């Protein structure tokens, strides 16, 4: 057997404790923000039937064509997939448990997503999203609310250079008319299409607009605009969203080429982008998807949602010089001798009862080496116990930043520790 160390799967990252502190802080900020808009948490499995994503996301999309981690269950041959996104699972769960009828839902989830992409900065094979879905709401008010929510979060996080791109994909009739015009236009210029665009010309011509191939940008810029075909209701909806954003002073740019990577969107679509992360500049994306509930087998219901890429957001915050919040320890308890050892674990539990964060030294060693560990732990106070202290049911309290050590009774320990902590 080889003794080579085993590495993590390419594109799947460990988040080590120093960095995890930033994740914990971020997750708490995001949860508070979601709760402030009345969104409730839902948790779905990481694995779903492959058919769910094929049906929800669409067969002719990057995700379903080439990015899914799909496998056969070795026990029973079921076709399964590690979730590449959360919307399909969320809608599946809502329908399966009948949450939707007579009760619109504001829901959020967070966690790992899996896509087999080429790993690079801001693009991983396992990444994390916070996803937000409002199901059962038809009006432009909820679309605008979700965009305003995002603006508030960026403000909370101190991100000032994220901009909003907005578009509408209209409804079935306008998409149909636009699709025919697009195919005709691209057929006229077939010699300028790359291989992928040629392949998609008849199956999913809208996606050609999304191409990042520089050689096709001029062609795409001249393509017929869906905006020119928009039906009255869809136009009114789009105008209402814009009016709300203007009333709240949220600037946006209308980008007629914003089509989103997934098939299920209609009407409002949006992306929040930054220029600071290179090609991976989209930190948050979403929009309306009124057809999806029915497509997954439910009674038709309107819906709108968005997802944020956590790695990209954290990269922005780190780029801003955001200091990693240090996981704090209040007290480190050092001890030597059998009696002292017993008292040490008793006082450690007592301090935790009183709400303090306590590390009890384990593994023996001299006082000197234990104090080094106390220092490295970042604790603000060391509690020092030798057998003579233990015999008297007393301990010594030492502020780590300097200052006089105090010997106190076990009863007075918490108040003494608190006194030192507050004094700093
Ligand atoms: P992109 O165009 O960058 O591939 P996408 O349109 O495929 O993005 P969505 O499916 O809309 O992305 O996912 C929402 C967000 O999740 C993205 O805006 C991005 O912030 C993040 N995201 C998507 N794919 C990845 C990935 N492979 N690694 C890290 N973050 C990702
Ligand atoms: Mg993608």
Any key phrases for this structure?
single chain, 424 residues, alpha+beta, Rossmann fold, 2 domains, 15 helices, 16 strands, elongated, binds adenosine-5'-triphosphate, binds magnesium ion
Short description:
The chain has 424 residues and is an alpha+beta fold. It has 15 helices and 16 strands. The chain has two domains: 17-171 and 231-319, 2-Layer Sandwich (BirA Bifunctional Protein, domain 2), CATH 3.30.930; 331-423, 3-Layer(aba) Sandwich (Rossmann fold).
Protein model, in words:
- It contains 15 helices and 16 strands.
- It is α+β, with helices and mostly antiparallel strands and 424 residues long.
- A hairpin with a 6-residue loop joins β3 (69-72) and β4 (79-82).
- The longest helix is centred in the N-terminal third of the chain and has 19 residues, at 17-35.
- The strands form three sheets. Strands 1-5-6-11-10-9-7-8 form an eight-stranded mixed β-sheet, with helices on both faces. Strands 13-12-14-15-16 form a five-stranded mixed β-sheet, with helices on both faces. It has a three-stranded antiparallel β-sheet with strand order 2-4-3.
- It has helices at 17-35, 50-57, 62-67, 87-96, 140-157, 172-188, 195-200, 217-221, 232-247, 292-295, 310-319, 338-353, 367-377, 387-391, 413-423, and strands spanning 40-41, 47-49, 69-72, 79-82, 105-114, 126-135, 163-168, 253-254, 266-273, 282-288, 303-309, 331-335, 358-360, 381-385, 394-399, 406-409.
- The chain is elongated and about 90 Å long.
- The protein has two domains: 17-171 and 231-319, 2-Layer Sandwich (BirA Bifunctional Protein, domain 2); 331-423, Rossmann fold (3-Layer(aba) Sandwich).
- α1 (17-35) packs antiparallel against α5 (140-157).
